[in-house]
Amino acid sequence: MSGCSTCDAVCCRLTVVLQPEDRIPDHYTTHTDAGLHVMARDAEGWCVAIDGASMQCGIYQTRPQVCRRFVMSGPYCREIRADYRDRNLRGIPLQLY
Predict the structure, then answer these.
(1) Is residue 95 part of a domain?
(2) How many folded domains does the chain comprise?
(3) Would you call 51 helix, strand, or coil by DSSP?
(4) Are 38 and 13 in contact (CB under 8 A)?
């Protein structure tokens, strides 16, 4: 768990495109202008399934497939964390699309 204990939880701010097999309650989801079915995000860009007090996923057992494939401290995790740190050091806010 050391990978997440000092993390900015950037993965919880990524756009999560849902797959047909994902069974996520409608109040956690939305559609983009392009028509993609995605996890909804709050006003600050966080996935709405995140419990802000504990920083844990409130639907972990039924989380989307893409979240299940995201490997903590894996290459993609490290890449997006480095990009996020670089952007913040330069004062550029993280843009989510």
Answers:
(1) no
(2) 1
(3) strand
(4) no
77: domain range?
Answer: 2-89
pTM: 0.75
Rounded CA-CA distance 90/1 in Å is: 28
41-74 tens-digit pLDDT: 999 888 999 887 877 889 999 999 998 888 888 8
Q: Is 94 inside a domain boundary? A: no
DSSP-assigned letter for residue 45: S
Q: Give the CA distances from residue 92 to residues 4, 9, 77, 82, 86, in Å, rounded to whole numbers and listed in that order.
A: 23, 17, 20, 13, 9
Q: Are 64 and 13 in contact (CB under 8 A)?
A: no
Residue 55 located in a structural domain: yes
